[in-house]
Write a structure and sequence with these properties.
alpha+beta, three-stranded antiparallel β-sheet, 138 residues, two-stranded antiparallel sheet, single chain
């Protein structure tokens, strides 16, 4: 599949904001203003916009993972207890090495039971808001 078809296929995915950021960066690099910049200024621009691109890529991946979640009638937590109440569109923030992303996921709870989020476990998310890489860089 050629690049145009591959690009078009992505236009219905959660990665559209990342694609837009990538296009914006390329347009900035082609701009008249960029043609007058020194290499250090170009590097600074690419670094800043590149970090945002990577954050948007991570956000797109998290949104894609959520889109793949299948709601279940009941869910058995790691504690072996069955949860029969489903909460959709639960969100939490994650501070990654690229910046903040929002993770949307399905939660399952029951009377007297703590809500559990299967996607959190699948992603091995930390209890606090700092990703393993983000915590290491602090």
């Amino acid at each position: 599949m050629d690049i145009a078809n591959r690009f078009t296929a992505l236009l219905t995915t959660p990665f559209v904001p990342a694609l837009g950021c990538c296009v914006d960066l390329i347009e900035s690099l082609k701009s008249v203003e960029a043609q007058t910049m020194e290499h250090g200024e170009i590097e600074t621009m690419i670094f800043a916009e590149g970090m945002e691109l990577m954050r948007l890529m991570l956000q797109g991946h998290m949104d894609h993972r959520h889109n793949l979640e299948v709601r279940q009638q009941q869910f058995t937590g790691a504690d072996g207890k069955i949860r029969t109440h489903c909460r959709t569109e639960c969100q939490r923030q994650l501070e990654s090495v690229f910046g903040t992303v929002v993770i949307t996921r399905i939660g399952y709870e029951g009377p007297g039971l703590k809500c559990v989020y299967p996607l959190d476990a699948a992603l091995n998310l930390p209890k606090d808001r700092y990703s393993h890489g983000g915590a290491a860089s602090k």
